[in-house]
Here is the input.
Amino acid sequence: MAMMGSAAPVSARTDREALITGDAVLLDLRTASFASRMLAAAIDGVLQLGILVGGSVAVAFVAERADLDAGLIAAAIVTMSVTAYVGYPVLCELLLRGRSVGRLVMGTRVVRDDGGPVHVRQSIIRAVMAMLEIWSTAGSLALTCSVIDRRSRRVGDLLAGTMVIQERMTAAEPDRVEVPASLSDWAAAADVGRLPVTLMQDIRSFLPRATTINPESRRQLSRDLLRRTLPHIAPAPPPGTDPEEFLAAVVAERSSRDEVRLRRSQERQRELSAEIRTVPFTV
Here is the structure.
């Protein structure tokens, strides 16, 4: 098989944020996409407008019946506005642990920059700034800031030290790698048990995204993984074997054998447990 020098690994772009808390705990957070934040904001905006309109109608109804002073009516309208634009988001974030009705629907949540729950002060800052960057500017200021910031934070998030994370995601089913037909006989007799776990992870990471990588980088990565794998495999694959087919055969055969070994271990444990339960315990 033709061999080439090792290529530098190509790191895939990710939206995960690796954060280290004050207790030296590593957090792996996925920031919410701009689309999910917009949909959540739209849902909450409809509810806030409903609170404002409903409260204003109620104030007008009471004012007509009780002949209230114009100053009291104005104060009541301001109170309803504060309740809708500040009270609703602050209470939701405090009672629902960083969520609102819209975020519950979209599976997102507001957290501090260190991954902890938001405080009252931070919720108030976010709500007050939302009146400027979302309601006063029709969302243009929030949109501009979210596009520029790498964590998609708006101005309120930057001032409050918060961000919105995606906490509910659909887990994708992993693609099962199969042994290529041309290498089935070789894989069945090959020794693949000495393959390091880290190398297995590198191969499993490369194979699913191989078709999306630049052809030249793909060729270099596959040959680099081939070079790293060959010392741990015996016997060597047949001459002329495609590097990616070889890697797929190694991973598939190793996974299959690990599954068989794990299944046998579980069956043995069940047998031992059954034997222990049947042994008479006498003094």
